[in-house]
Automatic annotation (TrEMBL):
Every GFO/IDH/MocA-like oxidoreductase domain range: 127-246
GO molecular function terms noted in the UniProt entry: nucleotide binding; oxidoreductase activity
Family annotation (InterPro entries): Gfo/Idh/MocA-like_OxRdtase_N (IPR000683), GFO_IDH_MocA-like_dom (IPR055170), NAD(P)-bd_dom_sf (IPR036291)
Organism name: Actinomadura montaniterrae
A Pfam entry, by short name: GFO_IDH_MocA
Name of the protein in its database record: Dehydrogenase
């Protein structure tokens, strides 16, 4: 099959390396808003470059992978679906809630599969945690704890357009909580703080956040995030039940040290998301290629992305207004 790749930045280049090695992929065609960057990436990897997005869509694609900047996602997804081309898109589907709903309305009923890039659904630890919940061996689940701790903050220029900590960062945790537990979130209570760069406060954002989610069966999920965790990139998810507990992401790269005695991770600490989730990124693209080849259902359709975004929106309202917010309130 011939797969188009829109976006030749850091994650786009990583996806290109994965795509070119997948069985059944005969050609990868790369395009970018900067044609020179597309040509350079294609040249390094032995791929074909397209001059622009129009040329990319004219290349006879069997599928499209979208790794372009966020504000281009919605238009590319809709264009692909209208062309009958299955599409994989990095989160978010669109920069905001109304835009996401518009894309879903365009996609709904088209019969063209769309897969959203929530890579934690393909991380072995998260999959094993989900299996443990489903098997019943943990008993009834009472608490889930999930964290995303970045080692360094993004550039100041990125912050105003990021959507905020809950939409940009914790949305992965929100999706992971739903994926692992198989439950929906009914309400949230969230807060945030700023002790780092003034750019976060100036943009109306926070550099550290925490949220308590109430799930529809009464389970409580605790989600925390920060832009300042110099020890390393730390993503973990714990599931605690009446009969036992499991943790995903506790390995030799976990940037934690025991306060007194105990076992230290062998290290080195995880440096970032591309390194921590390298296997998961490869697995989700392999699943996408299988979906395209076999005509199977999307393993992460855009409706799942919308549900995670509703949670993020509710957390942002809760943080700003200092109150508990129901998901139904945000839905309306």
């Amino acid at each position: 099959m011939r797969i188009g790749l829109a976006g030749a930045g850091r994650i786009g280049t990583a996806h290109a390396e994965t795509l070119r090695a997948l069985p059944g992929v005969a050609e990868v065609v790369v395009a970018d808003a900067d044609p020179r960057r597309a040509r350079e990436a294609a040249g390094r990897l032995g791929l074909r470059a397209a001059d622009d997005v129009g040329a990319l869509f004219a290349a006879g694609l069997d599928a499209l992978v979208v790794a372009a900047p966020t504000d281009a996602h919605a238009g590319l997804v809709v264009r692909a679906v209208e062309a009958g081309t299955p599409v994989f898109v990095e989160k978010p589907v669109a920069p905001d809630l109304p835009g996401t709903i518009e894309v879903l309305e365009a996609v709904r009923g088209a019969g063209v599969p769309v897969q959203v890039g929530f890579q934690r659904r393909f991380d072995p630890g998260h999959v094993a945690a989900r299996d443990a919940v489903r098997s019943g061996r943990l008993g009834w689940v009472h608490t889930v704890r999930s964290c995303t701790l970045d080692p360094v903050p993004p550039p100041d220029a990125y912050i105003p357009g990021s959507g905020g900590l809950f939409r940009d960062c914790s949305v992965h945790d929100f999706d992971a909580v739903r994926f692992v537990t198989g439950r929906d979130v009914t309400e949230v209570t969230a807060t945030g703080a700023n002790r780092g760069s003034a750019a976060f406060a100036e943009a109306g954002d926070v550099d550290t956040g925490a949220a308590t989610l109430t799930l529809d069966d009464g389970t409580l999920a605790l989600v925390s995030a920060t832009r300042y965790n110099a020890a390393g990139y730390d993503v973990r998810l714990e599931v605690l039940g009446s009969e036992g507990g499991v943790v995903a992401g506790l390995d030799d790269g976990t940037p934690l040290s025991p306060a007194a005695g105990g076992i230290r991770p062998a290290g080195p600490a995880h440096t970032g998301f591309l390194e921590r989730f390298a296997g998961a990124y490869a697995a989700e693209l392999a699943a996408f290629a299988d979906m395209v080849a076999g005509g199977t259902a999307s393993p992460c359709p855009p409706e799942e992305s919308l549900e995670a975004l509703y949670i993020a929106e509710a957390c942002e309202v809760s943080r700003r207004e200092r109150r508990t917010v129901t998901i139904e309130e945000v839905r309306r």
